[in-house]
């Protein structure tokens, strides 16, 4: 039976990427060695890093004013590294609290400067994106979490401000075009929409750096990694290579604009069924629904059928549909590599179950 991978992360990867990655484990670039054992200083891996950085810029439309880094420590490390590198003592950065990950980012950033939380959707268990708040013009940056995996919400437009945006795009990177001019920094853990766990993509505008007076530990200073092209120490060679394979695949699919269309079509299929089917109801505000993580529960009066639905999913190869432990219900993560065929299987199962 074919398995349909709806896990939130580590998440689905394109089948051609998995095949090429498996081949590289046996032998890479005609070297007679596995990619798992080659030197990170070799010309072969230097070429991988260079192409990965260039392709990131190409896909997202980043200019030469951005540096692209492949680091470690996940997005969770960027919660404090971003503030440590960008925010001086006495300066103010603004944050919007839209869920677990932004809450953690706020907590870490408070070690390095004044943090003003402009708005929060905690009052409604983070089921919407706050709007209508004022952004101080003197803020060093505005921090957003573009997509919220646990609660199934996503920004579909950016706040109106000239303040540079620092954005955690861990779960929707490369899913849609962005306006690079609005951002001072973007970061993303790879394991949701780009590659396997083990590397973190950081894109930072050069003019955001070098403006704090604090001593920054060598390994936590973005300039350290910029000067050494992400190879100051041994980088996660294999995860970076798989990220490159995924970006090549994205280009073959027609790029980010084509991926946005693909994701919108998948989202419409699944949300239409949730809204039509009396057995289910969505949990996120309709105008803020995520195209990466579709969250839903059994409708009122049908709560006792949740276990039966979960069992039916498992019996039909629907994997990873269980909601996050903090909210319950169901979550279908529909990242770039998820096919419309798999969405159709889930939709048909929901129809049959009702």
CATH architecture of the largest domain: 3-Layer(aba) Sandwich
Instruction: Tell me the domain tally.
Output: 2
Basic shape: globular
Q: Got a strand count?
A: 14
Which whole number gives the mean pLDDT?
Answer: 97
Distance between the termini: 23 Å
Under CATH, the homologous superfamily of the largest domain reads Type I PLP-dependent aspartate aminotransferase-like (Major domain)
Rg calculated over all Cα atoms = 21 Å
Strands side by side in the biggest sheet: 2-10-9-8-5-3-4
| SSE order | EHHEHEHEEEEEEEHHHEEHEEH
Fraction of helical residues = 25-40%
Please render the helix and strand layout as text.
Blueprint: E1 4-5, H1 15-26, H2 43-60, E2 66-71, H3 74-86, E3 92-97, H4 100-109, E4 114-120, E5 142-145, E6 147-148, E7 153-154, E8 165-168, E9 183-189, E10 200-205, H5 222-227, H6 237-252, H7 255-276, E11 280-282, E12 293-298, H8 306-315, E13 318-319, E14 330-333, H9 340-353
Parallel strand pairs: 1-13, 3-4, 3-5, 5-8, 8-9
Antiparallel strand pairs: 2-10, 6-7, 9-10, 11-12, 12-14
Helix pairs in contact: 1-6, 2-6, 3-4, 7-9
Would you mind describing this structure in some detail?
The structure is a single chain. Strand 6 (147-148) and strand 7 form a beta hairpin. The longest helix is centred in the C-terminal third of the chain and has 22 residues, at 255-276. Helix 2 (43-60) crosses helix 6 and helix 7 (255-276) runs parallel beside helix 9 (340-353). The protein has a 7-stranded mixed sheet, with helices on both faces. Strands 11-12-14 form a 3-stranded antiparallel sheet, with helices on one face. The protein has a two-stranded parallel ribbon with strand order 1-13. It has 2 domains: 15-252, 3-Layer(aba) Sandwich (Aspartate Aminotransferase, domain 2), CATH 3.40.640.10; 255-353, Aspartate Aminotransferase, domain 1 (Alpha-Beta Complex). The model has no long low-confidence stretch (mean pLDDT 97). It is an alpha/beta fold. The protein is built from 9 helices and 14 strands. The protein has helices at 15-26, 43-60, 74-86, 100-109, 222-227, 237-252, 255-276, 306-315, 340-353; strands at 4-5, 66-71, 92-97, 114-120, 142-145, 147-148, 153-154, 165-168, 183-189, 200-205, 280-282, 293-298, 318-319, 330-333. The chain is 34% helix and 17% strand.
């Amino acid at each position: 039976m074919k398995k349909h991978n709806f896990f939130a992360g580590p998440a689905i990867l394109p089948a051609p990427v998995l095949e090429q990655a498996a081949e590289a484990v046996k032998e890479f670039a005609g070297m007679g060695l596995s990619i798992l054992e080659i030197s990170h200083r070799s010309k072969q891996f230097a070429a991988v890093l260079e192409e990965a950085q260039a392709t990131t810029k190409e896909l997202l439309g980043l200019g030469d004013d951005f540096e692209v880094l492949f680091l470690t420590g996940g997005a969770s490390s960027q919660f404090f590294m971003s503030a440590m590198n960008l925010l001086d003592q006495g300066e103010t950065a603004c944050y919007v609290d839209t869920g677990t990950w932004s809450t953690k980012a706020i907590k870490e950033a408070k070690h390095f400067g004044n943090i003003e939380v402009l708005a929060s959707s905690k009052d409604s268990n983070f089921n919407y994106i706050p709007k209508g708040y004022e952004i101080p013009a003197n803020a060093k940056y505005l921090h957003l979490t573009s997509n919220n995996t646990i609660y199934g919400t996503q920004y579909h437009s950016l706040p109106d401000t000239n303040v540079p945006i620092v954005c955690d795009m861990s779960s929707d990177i490369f899913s849609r075009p962005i306006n690079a001019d609005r951002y001072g920094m973007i970061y993303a853990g790879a394991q949701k929409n780009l590659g396997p766990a083990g590397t973190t993509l950081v894109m930072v505008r050069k003019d955001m750096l070098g403006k704090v007076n604090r001593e920054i530990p060598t390994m936590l200073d973005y300039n350290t990694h910029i000067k050494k092209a992400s190879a100051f120490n041994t980088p996660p060679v294999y995860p970076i290579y798989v990220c490159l394979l995924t970006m090549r695949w994205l280009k073959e699919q027609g790029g980010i604009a084509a991926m946005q269309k693909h994701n919108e079509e998948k989202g419409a299929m699944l949300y239409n069924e949730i809204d039509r089917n009396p057995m289910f109801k969505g949990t996120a505000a309709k105008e803020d629904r995520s195209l990466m993580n579709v969250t839903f529960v059994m409708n009122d009066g049908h709560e006792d059928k949740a276990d039966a639905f979960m069992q039916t999913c498992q019996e039909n190869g629907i994997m990873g549909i269980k909601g996050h432990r903090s909210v319950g219900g169901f979550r279908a993560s529909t990242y770039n590599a998820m096919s419309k065929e798999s969405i159709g299987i889930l939709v048909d199962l929901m129809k049959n179950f009702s």
